[in-house]
Amino acid sequence: MLAYHGTAERNLNSCLEHGIQPRGDKASEWEVPSRPDMTYMSIGYPFYYALQAAEDEKLLVFEIDLDRLIEVLLHPDEDFIAQALAQQERRPLMEVHDEVVENLEYYQHHWQLSLDSIGNVCYQGAIPPEAITRYCLFDLKQRPSLGLWMSDPSISILNFGFCKDKYVGLVDWVFGYREELPGDLGEAVLPPKYREVRLQESRDRTGIEIRENN
To answer: Is the pLDDT of residue 30 over 60?
Structure first.
């Protein structure tokens, strides 16, 4: 089973040598801080997360074989648990979120459901280099239209339920698991030229470099 971690090109050599590290004492990039001891992975949004980390450089996305990780260290993304509980218990999301962050180990057995339902999962500690199968260097300057597609997702259970095929399909296309980029939800009612543009993009591998981690 594969998942992906998005970061910036400057971190490539360090991650290949020492593994993908949790943020630890570094400040969180997010308004709602993530767990400092967790390394986060996604099947739908790794390029979005890479965009948040990159400056004027290529995006870097690692492909990770979850079967090479220690399963009891896999955990659900706290956003998944918090959103589900807030809806179920009719409580403010942020109030629930803080509780979930502190007690995430209690929900450890829901990691697969988190991956399926919101597209994200996390791992307690560093992801070792031997779990990295391949990685992608993506040049945003050469593929600005794809960059726009990656740049503004709504990371929620509801949105992933509607748009999972689009988000996962884009990642699968970049890594060569499908030949065509996924169609947009409204493509069926748009003029045929929109499908042709997508097919042209699908045939173009400019700015995308996939490397094996031997």
So the answer is: no
